[in-house]
Records
---
Amino acid sequence: DIQVTQSPSSLSASVGERVTITCRASQSIPIYLNWYQHKPGKAPKLLIYDGSKLQSGVPSRFSGSASGTEVTLTISSLQPEDCGTYFCQQSYSTPLTFGGGTTVEI
Amino acid sequence: QVRLVQSGAEVKKPGASVKVSCKVSGYSLSKFSIHWVRHVPGKGLEWVGGFDPKNGETIFGQNFQGRVTMTGNKSTDTWYMDLTSLRSEDTAVYYCATDRAGLAAVSGWLLTFEFWGQGSLVTVSS
C-alpha cells in the first residue's frame, strides 16, 4: 500500500498570509495526489487534482505543485473562510489512502 | 449540477448490519462510478471502496473486503453501501463521492473524489 505523510498536522495563520501544506508519498507518484478541504459538518470538497490542476469553481488562491515524491498545497492569501482541515489523497493505486490531515486556523 | 443526498443517522448494535443510501440528482446514476469514504471521529479519512454501476465492478479498501457490499438502483438513481458484522470501530461518518471519471467522460476509474454527499453518521454501540 502507498503511505501518504502530511505535514504539518495543524497551523495557525493570519488573514492574508501565505500557507503551505506538504504531502509525501512512499513511492514517486507526484501527479497522482489530490487535495480536499473538509469543514465540520460539511461534505469534503475537491480543491486540486493530479497534483496541480485546480478543480472548477475553486478560488485561484489555491494552487498545487509537485516535485519528486512531494506535493504542496499553497493558499496564497489566507481568507477567513479557508479554516478547516485539508487532506491529500493518492489516486495512483488501490487501496486509496489519505494523509493524516492539516487543521488550518485563522 | 451534481447533488448527492444521503440517508440519515443510524444507531446499530455490534454484529448488526447497516445500509446507507446515496441518491444522485442532476445526472443519471449510470454516469458515475461511486466511492464510499468514512471519517472516524478524531481520525482521518479512510476509503471503504468503489462501485461502477455500468459493469458492476467493485474495488475495496484494505479492511472491508468481505464485509461491504456496494450496489446501485438505476430506476431511483440511488447507490447503496451495506456494511455487515459491525463493531465499535466502525462508528464514523460515511460519505459517498463520485469518481472524477464521470464528468471527465473517460472509461474506468480516475480514483479521485469529485462530488460528495453530506455524510451519514453510523454509531455502533451496545
Note: The first helix of chain B runs from residue 101 to 104.
---
Amino acid sequence: EAAVTQSPRSKVAVTGGKVTLSCHQTNNHDYMYWYRQDTGHGLRLIHYSYVADSTEKGDIPDGYKASRPSQENFSLILELASLSQTAVYFCASSVSYEQYFGPGTRLTVL
Amino acid sequence: QQQVRQSPQSLTVWEGETAILNCSYEDSTFDYFPWYHQFPGESPALLIAIRPVSNKKEDGRFTIFFNKREKKFSLHIADSQPGDSATYFCAASLYGSSGNKLIFGIGTLLSVKP
C-alpha cells in the first residue's frame, strides 16, 4: 500500500522564525503536493512537483517555498512564519489521478 | 475564488437513511471528480471518484451522480451507518502533464445517529 510520511507530526513555531516541514514517499510516485487545511476552507494547494529538482506554485503559494531534492522527498519551507500560517499541512503523492495523503503536520505559530 | 462549492456544511441523518451531499463546479474543463472522507485526527482518504464520461458511479452503498450540463455532482450514501460519520470533501481537477491539481470544496460534516 501507498506510504507517505510526514515530519514532524506537530510543531510550535514563533512568529518570524523559519519552519521546514518534510514529506517522504515510498510509492515511487512522480507527483507530490502540499496542502493546508483550515476550518471553513477545506484543503488548498500550496505547491506541487512533478519531477525532482522542480516545483510549481499552487493556489496559495504566498509565504511558502518548496523543495524537491529527490523523487521521494518534498519539503515545505516557511521562511518567516506568521500567525496566519497556523494550520494542518498535508503532503500527498500520486502517479495519476488518485492522491495518497500523509498523516499531516499540525503547525501552530505563536 | 472558490471554484468548487459544497453543501450542506453539516448534515445529520438517522441510521438507515440516505445522506445526500452536493457539489458544483465552474470550470468545464475539469475531468476528474473525487469524494474524500476524513475521520477526526486522520488524513483524507479517497472514497469514490467519477470521470465525466459517466453520469453515475456506484461502489457499495456509495453512489456519485454527475450532471455535466449543470456542472453538479452529488454523493449518496445509502443505508447510512454511525461509522460513516466523518467530514466529506468533494473535489475537481484537470489532470495534466504536471499532475492532478485538486480543488476541494469546504467539506460536509456528516453525523449519523443510531
Note: The interface with chain B takes residues 30-31, 33, 40-45, 48-50, 56, 58-59, 90, 94, 96-99, 101-104 of chain A (CB under 8 Å).
---
Amino acid sequence: ILNVEQSPQSLHVQEGDSTNFTCSFPSSNFYALHWYRWETAKSPEALFVMTLNGDEKKKGRISATLNTKEGYSYLYIKGSQPEDSATYLCAFDSTGKLIFGQGTTLQVKP
Amino acid sequence: GAGVSQSPSNKVTEKGKDVELRCDPISGHTALYWYRQSLGQGLEFLIYFQGNSAPDKSGLPSDRFSAERTGGSVSTLTIQRTQQEDSAVYLCASSLDFTANTEAFFGQGTRLTVV
C-alpha cells in the first residue's frame, strides 16, 4: 500500500506570513511528485510536477523542493495572501498512477 | 471541450439503486483517473485507465463499483445497489499520457448523495 503523508493537516496564518508544508512519500518506484491547489467549490489545479532529486520549482510566491532519496517534498508560500487559502495536495506518481495525500488546508486571515 | 466535463454535477439516489457517473476527458488525453472524496477525507484513488492497457482497478472499494472507458475517451463509473457510505464527491481527471511529467486536469466532480 502506497503511503503519502502530508503535514500539517491544517494551518492558520496571518496575511503576510510565510509558511511551508511537507509531503512524504515512498522512495522506491518514484516517477514524479505533483502538487495541486484545491480551492473551495473548484477543481484541483496543478501547481508543480517534479521529477528530479534536488529539483526546485517556483510559481510566483509559491515554490517547491524535492528530495527523492529520503522521500519528501516541501511547498513554500512566501507572504501569504487571503487568496492563497485552499487545500494543498501532493500526489505520488508511480508509473502514471497518482496517489494523493490527505492535503494541508491553509487559511490566511486578512 | 476545453476541460474535463463530468455529469451529472449532483445526484441524489435511493439506497439500493444503481447510478452511472460520466466523465468526458480532455480530447487527446490518454490517461483517465477516478477518485472520490468522502466527507472529511482526502482523495481516494478508485481506478486508472492508461491508453490501451488494462485498467488499474486496485482502488475500487467493492464489486458494486465498475468503470469502463469506451473508445479511449468517455468513461462511465457505475455503482450498483448504492449504499449510504457511497455518498461522496466523485472526481474524474485526465492527463496527456501516462509517462511522468504530465499534470492531471480535474473535472468539477459529481456529488452523490444516497438517501
Note: The first strand of chain A starts at residue 5 and ends at 7.
